Amino acid sequence: MSRILLVCLLATTWQVATAQNVKEEPLIKEMMQQFEASNRNRATVSGWRIQLLATTDRQKLDNVRQTFQYRYPNIPVDWIHDPPYYKLRAGAFFTKLDAMRLKHILEKEYSGIYLVKDEKIKTVELVQSY
Questions:
Q1: Domain extent at residue 86
Q2: What is the reported pTM?
Q3: Which residues of 77-106 are buried (b: 16+ CB within 10 A; e: fewer)?
Q4: CA–CA gap between residue 53 and residue 86 (Å, rounded)
Q5: Which of 110, 9, 123 is nearest to 76 (CA)?
Q6: How far are the Cα atoms of 59, 86, 97 from residue 80, in angstroms, in the given order?
Q7: 22 and 72 in one domain?
Q8: Share of residues in the chain with pLDDT > 90 (%)
């Protein structure tokens, strides 16, 4: 057991030592700075949401939305109108795994829910974990 620990420590030390001796090309450095700046300025990311309901009845949508907001106040919920349907979607997750955790919890209360990919999730509305 101690040999494994020693090997891991030596490997980590070697990686740190070699990383200090790496010479970075100016063009690569400039490209990385541009990449970082463009990602910092992005207001939306691609992620996952949970579709709770798809209905043509706007009143039903509002009732389910209010009930959901009361039970789960820390989870963002929003709807979209894709004629003729109103679609109620909850959460905003970066990974599918995080969305699946919440879906598993919500399946006890809401039948027929499923995950949907959303290409325009605002970074401020991402749910970190549930």
A1: 44-125
A2: 0.64
A3: bebeeeeeebbbbbbbbbeeebbeebbeeb
A4: 8
A5: 123
A6: 14, 6, 23
A7: no
A8: 49
